[in-house]
Amino acid sequence: MSYKAHHERSIQDPDGFWGEQAQLIHWEKPYQSVLNYANPPFAKWFEGGLTNLCYNAIDRHLKERANQTALVAVSTETNIEKTYTYQELYEEVNRIAAILKANGVKKGDRVLIYMPMIAEACFAMLACVRIGAIHSVVFGGFASHSLASRIDDAKPKMIITAEAGMRGGKAVPYKPLLDEAITLATSKPEKVLVVNRGLVDYTPIAGRDLDYATERQKHLNDIVPIEWVDSTHPSYILYTSGTTGKPKGVQRDTGGYTVALASTMNHIFCGKPGETMFCTSDIGWVVGHSYIIYAPLIHGMATILYEGTPLRPDAGIWWQLVEKYKVSVMFSAPTAVRVLKKQDPAFLSKYDLSSLRALFLAGEPLDEPTASWIHDAIQKPIVDNYWQTETGWPMLAIQRGVEVMPHKFGSPGVPSFGYNLKLLDDATTAELGPDQKGVIAIEGPLPPGCMQTVWGDDKRFVSTYWETIPGKTIYSTFDWGIKDKDGYFFILGRTDDVINVAGHRLGTREIEESLSSHSNISEVAVVGIEDKLKGQVAIGFAIPKDASNVASLEAELMKTVDQQLGAIARPARVYIVTALPKTRSGKIVRRALQAVAEGRDPGDISTMEDQTVLAQIKQIIEQNPNKS
Ligand code: AMP
């Protein structure tokens, strides 16, 4: 079937299309309807059907694949490399599931996972969904303040962590950050399960902390029966940044997500059961949830979980793993490729990459020099794909399993099956024709696997995503885009205050709140500016209360962000200024700040109250340029 016919059918006959895709997974009890869209924009996929994500990822394969590799956990930080067969993965997951149950975790309870990239993190996620508990993985790079706000929103009964992660050969303690977060949070978990990797000393809190090795030993031979859940039962919450300082809990269902992921493995990623997939993301991000953990396992593949940087012990490490484990599908981010680009391409060409069919890249715009460089270095198709935490799987991609259409540089391709994508004029809401810039929107229902709602806040789901285009109930991606005459989309950046640093999505508002918490700050603004390596970096502008005491203020502000949000949110520079450019109604003109920080002409500044402010800021930047 051609791409066009395939896509059209998925939109015009969702019941027929997704009913067929649903056959890819196990249903303990058949669903009553493929789609219930009686209460838009809330879509219920496969309602009434009983299934389980863990069963589909592991148990279902045991008959055929018990001795096949399911998980390869590689750490170039600790030099530990361990392979688990499907049978071994099954046993490890059952042990954690038994620990959770023994500590009173039940269906619907939340379990927060704050862990580095170790095999136990994968066991923990699968153990949660096995018993119908809802996991919320928080990226290990987030610090106590971010963690506390997520704890208060998800209210986990239990938290699973490790005493430390490791990056670039240095141990990064996790436990003290978690302890501080729990102190800050109003909602306290009953238990904290700690995987002790022996990297740093830590003090367990009596009565609350459990040692994983000891607990595992107690449940070595336990088998925990599958908790069959309705297809619409939440499988996980994953927090993401938006325009307010309060992170949004993206809530995902069970059945729709499992079907969608299985379907993408056939239509987009084209891995085969028994082969190996290597996704270099982190379990703290949506790409990690979908393509390190769930999709490859649902599809009967082996998956590689990698702790370390792409450059240690040398820039050949990822490609060495491709050769060693005969990786057929690889998934990474443009930033990682830009890091490799600074190295000798011989590191890549030295390994036998014949098993590799394609390299998928997502998370941020893929610029042409980066795409060409990696294509020349590995001589494989480079498949840019565009999506968001909210959607859970690609919205735009060349769907190689449907039709191998030509790639166009700068475009992640065409709408994926199930996505009724529109380009709308943000002012008139009219649908736009070729080569006109507009907001990328999705006509409901969102396909299976996309967010169901914002955790605990249906109203916020509707008002944030579905009510931004006047007069229309349509999902906004908050991305600008353009479509060419062949239907290929090009992404032109966000419409809101979200920035993308090295593929990590950050809300400038969160960073502003953190900077404002410093006792000597009266007002701040944060903008994202272009960066050659990371795509974007954050730049702060801060007005001190006491201008006579600012010698170490920038360093203190950076430290504040490090401690509260984590180093990933640290701005490249915070300029200490005396005023911010504002409109007459008092709104900060971020667009102008961004322009001067990027060394561009700020354009029309006639609406500003005081036009000299921008000139002063420009001077400060020129005297102290951002060297990141
Ligand atoms: P996240 O929710 O962290 O995955 O971030 C999603 C955002 O990253 C999108 O809304 C886009 O702004 C950006 N993004 C993701 N993939 C791409 C891509 N292939 N090209 C351009 N931007 C992308």
From TrEMBL:
Organism, as annotated: Polynucleobacter paneuropaeus
Protein origin, superkingdom: Bacteria
TM segment ranges: 111-133
Domain Acetyl-coenzyme A synthetase N-terminal, first and last residues per copy: 3-57
AMP-binding enzyme C-terminal domain residues: 510-587
Coiled coil regions, renumbered to chain: none
Any one GO molecular-function label of the UniProt entry: propionate-CoA ligase activity
Xref: InterPro entries: ACAS_N, AMP-bd_C, AMP-bd_C_sf, AMP-binding_CS, AMP-dep_synth/lig_dom, ANL_N_sf, Propion_PrpE
Lineage: Bacteria, Pseudomonadati, Pseudomonadota, Betaproteobacteria, Burkholderiales
Family: Belongs to the ATP-dependent AMP-binding enzyme family.
GO BP, one annotated term: propionate catabolic process, 2-methylcitrate cycle
Stored Pfam families: ACAS_N (PF16177), AMP-binding (PF00501), AMP-binding_C (PF13193)
Domain AMP-dependent synthetase/ligase: 59-445
Keyword Cell division belongs to the record: no
Protein name (Swiss-Prot/TrEMBL): Propionate--CoA ligase
Transmembrane listed as a keyword: yes
Keywords per UniProt: ATP-binding, Ligase, Membrane, Nucleotide-binding, Transmembrane, Transmembrane helix
